[in-house]
Structures are given as structure tokens and as C-alpha cells.
């Protein structure tokens, strides 16, 4: 066997320590970063569920207590047959039955804006804020296209909070009543959402 010269001892020690200390140096390098891998269990995420929610959306534009309020429009909006450019802020109640006096489960809070020059179609950017039962305080976020005179419109659910963390899915809207004079509408919603 070759004699261990001081140089060989140094190389050996260096390699030995490098291997032993590798996890430590790696951890130190990682602590400088802002991200880490995490197991879903550590966030309390168990099995993914699919939920179906059903409610009625009350869009009240006119009357004493409107819940949908125009906040902006373009100089050309009034000349546009589709009201192109109008932006409406809403805080619409969501109820279990078509009657606005029925049990309220939440609100639809956000914006819809006329986004088509050729038909009445809205860009919908809003949150469903639930206030009933286990979903009290949880939200779902909608970002989609709503061509209001079509039979069933589908809008993506792009996320959520609370019990709806990591949510994704879609909402289907079907007009229940639409008063062309007052512009008030009741819309039936079926929402299908994956979440934990
Ligand atoms: C929903 O949560 C809020 C805030 O925690 C609470 O004040 C309210 O009573 C709850 N509503 C229901 C129906 O549980």
C-alpha cells in the first residue's frame, strides 16, 4: 500500500469533508433563495375534491338600491350599439332561489365591462365572496367572457381562497329573467370547481 504523504492526506481530508459537509453547504446556499419545495401535506392539503355550487345572481342596475353601478365609459360608448367601453362595478347578492328575498349565500363583487363591438358581451372580472355555511369567508375568482344573450355562457374559475385555495373550474350562467327596460337581471349559476 502506498504511504500516505501529507499531500495525499490533505486531498483525502478535503474530499471527505466536502462529502460530509455537502448537505450543509447546500442548505446554506438554499437559505439565500426565496423559494423551496414543500409537500402538499405540510400545507394541510389532502385529497382534491370536485364541488358543484348552484345559486342565483341578482344584477340590479336601476331602482332605489342598485347593486351594479356604471363607473366609467368611453367618449364613444353612447354611440356604440353594444355600449362598448362601459365599465360597471357590482356588489350583487347571490341567493339559493330566484327570489332576491331568499337565503343569501354570498356576493359577486367586481367589474364587468362591455368588451365587444359586434354583440353585447362582457369581460367579467369578479370574486364570489361566500358568507354561508362552511364556505363563509372563502372566495372564488372569475375571469371570463359573458355574451349575455347566449343561452349558456361559460366562464373560467381561475383561483380561490379559504376552502377554495388552488381552485380551478368553470361557471355556467343562464339568464333567468332579464328586464330590457330596467336592465335588471337574475342569472342562474352552476359552478363546478376542483379544490382541496
Ligand atoms: C361568517 O363569518 C363572519 C366573520 O367570521 C361572521 O361574523 C358571520 O357570523 C359568519 N356567518 C355565518 C352565517 O356563519
From TrEMBL:
It holds the Pfam family Dirigent. Residues 1-29 form the signal peptide. Keywords: Apoplast, Secreted, Signal. One of its GO terms (cellular component) is apoplast. The keyword Signal applies. It is found in: Secreted, Extracellular space, Apoplast. Belongs to the plant dirigent protein family. Dirigent proteins impart stereoselectivity on the phenoxy radical-coupling reaction, yielding optically active lignans from two molecules of coniferyl alcohol in the biosynthesis of lignans, flavonolignans, and alkaloids and thus plays a central role in plant secondary metabolism. Homodimer. PANTHER family: NUCLEOPORIN-RELATED. This is Dirigent protein. It comes from Populus tomentosa.
